[in-house]
Each structure stands twice: as C-alpha cells, then as structure tokens.
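Design review, sub-item: ligand-bound model
Attendees: FS, YL, KQ
YL presented the inputs for the glyoxylic acid complex:
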Amino acid sequence: MRRVLEHVSTWMRSAGLDVRLDPASNVIGRRSSSQAGAPALVIGSHLDTVPNAGKYDGVLGVLLGVAAVQALGCRRLPFAVEVVGFSEEEGVRYRSPYIGSSALSGRFDKALLDRRDERGIAMADAFRAFGLDPDNVAQATYRPGSILAYFEAHIEQGPVLDACDLPLGIVEAIAGQSRLRVAFEGHAGHAGTSPMTLRRDALPAAAELILEVEQQARCVPELRATVGSIAVEPGATNVIPGVATLSLDIRHAEDEVRSKALAGLLDRAGEIAVRRQLTFRVVEAEHHNAVPADSQLTGMLASAVADAGLEARRMVSGAGHDGAIVAAIAPMAMLFLRSPGGASHHPDEAVHLGDVRTALDVILRFIDKLATSRLPAGER
Ligand code: GLV
Ligand code: MN
Ligand code: MN
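KQ shared the predicted structure:
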C-alpha cells in the first residue's frame, strides 16, 4: 500500500497537484482555485482492493481524476480540484468498508480501532505500524461546505452496459448493504467415536443457512445475498466442527426490502440452530442504507454524456462506493465505465481503452458545466 501511495503521489505531482497523506491514509492531491477560499470539486475513488482482484476497481477512478487535472493544464476554475485516493474501501482486512471515506466525511466509527484482523492485530496498531496516529483520524474530516461536489468514476463491475453496447452509465443511486459475521456454535468432538445422532456439529447448520441464503435471495427481485467466507473451528479432518462462522453480504436498492430479507434469514438461522441444538449469534453487523446521487449534479453529468454524443443511461449501483459515504456531506455524482464481460473482483476485470478516453472527455465536459453552474457550495 505504501508503494501504491508513493506511485500515485508521483503521478499526482506531475499533474501539478499538491499532495498530502491525511490521517486516515487517504492520499489527496489539490489544485487550488482562482478564487481564494472557494470549495473544491473532489474527484475520488479507492486504492485498496480485494484478494485476487482485477486492475481497475477503484484505482481507475483515481487515475481518471489525475488525468482530468493534467488535461486542465493551467486553466483557471472558480473552484479547487482535489483528487482523492481513498484507503480501505473494500473492508477486506477489518471486515468494515469505507474507512478512508468515512474519516474524510466525519463518520469514522472509533470503535473499529479495537477490531482485530485475522492475525489478531487491532486496527489501532495497524495505523501505528503504518506511521499514523489512530487518535488523529478525526482530523481527516472536511469542514462543512468545503466540498462543492463529489465525483467518482468507476467500472460498472457488472454486465449491463456491455450487454447494451454502451461505454458509459450514470449512477442514480447506490444500493444499501448489510455486512455481517454470524456464528453457529455446537460442540467439538472426536470424528470417529461420536455417533451421528449424538453430535452438535456446527458446520451442517452453516451449510443449511448458506443454501437458505441462496434460495431466499432468488425469490426476491434484485436482492443480492452472498456468503463469501466461512471459518470452521477447530478445523481438522478428524474433529467435529465446534464453531462455524460465516460472512453474509446482503444488498438491495430499497432499504426495506434488504432489512426484511435479512430479518427473515436471521430467523431461519435461529430455527436451524434450535433444531440442531446449537447456538446462533450475530458476531458483527454493519448496515449502510441506499444513497441517491444528487439530482442537479447528475443532471449535469447526464448532459455532459449527451454532449459527447452518447446515450445517458441511468442505473443503480449494486456495488458500494466511497461516493455513498461522501454523499452525506456533499452533492455526489458517479459515472460508470463499461466492464467487458461484467467481470469484477476477479483478475479478468477489464476496460476498453476507448471507453476510458470517452470517460475523460465526459469528465472534462462535466467540469466545464460545473464551472458555469450556480451549484450552492456544499453544506448539507
Ligand atoms: C465494494 O467493492 C463492494 O463490495 O461493493
Ligand atoms: Mn470492489
Ligand atoms: Mn470499487
């Protein structure tokens, strides 16, 4: 991550940005305004990624920001432009997404500092090991009104634009998501001596729940529900599993649909546990409601897309984005680039070079529109 930050900082500097690393490890490049004290257009996305990932999720949005600033040259604008490479959007290490953007938006939950990763390292210690003081995270928060607009470009990460043969899409909302860790607990024992009827095996309960998650999600239009990881304890061939801990990721554009589906699944898990004489508990839960994009800003983006001679197709993002968090403190708009084959969170993730060029053209048109608009300076 340090090497990534150094590399991106070098590119930012050569585009003429003043670069700093904030207390939450967000790298921020700033180009000042022709008007002193003017708020900033913030162009951002994230620099972290998932295991065995592709090359574009997150980082493309940061580099498009840098490229846009480079293309602006010495043009004067009535607002500052900041390009932000957010830290820890995916939430892989601490099972909690949006750490950098939460800090910037004044929404970082300090309780997370005590959370431990798989190796038992507390987040606070991870900050220290990286040379950052965990007590300073709040200092990453932007002043109310300092952001005129937040813009994020991102690969679609799904097949819709590719199927419609369109290079770009406009995000009208980011779906809500719940992320949980849940555990069944029974009793570990000898795999050879314990009769099948006298066991309290946690793993078959987990298996039942996994199938239930898939079946229920298939019955609710547009619901996405995923068990992405499972840990079995003690985890040996000849030992009956005493504990099975599962992740659960559940998403929908309507918060009510998501909450209802989640409650149904937790009820089902409780029933499975009772029938199998196990205990069931929610170990961790984090919920993010769906977030609409700002209508005025999105209108400007749509007209930038139309001016480039393209259809301005609107869509809901099933993936989470830093924009969902920054939207709490600034008007937010997002542009999607087609993902060939819909691949994402996978090494096959790709973009067409021509789409990246087109996106850059649209971003510059969007900046032009913002420069001549009367968007009220950011406080909400
Ligand atoms: C971020 O990539 C997410 O999980 O939506
Ligand atoms: Mn991702
Ligand atoms: Mn992403």
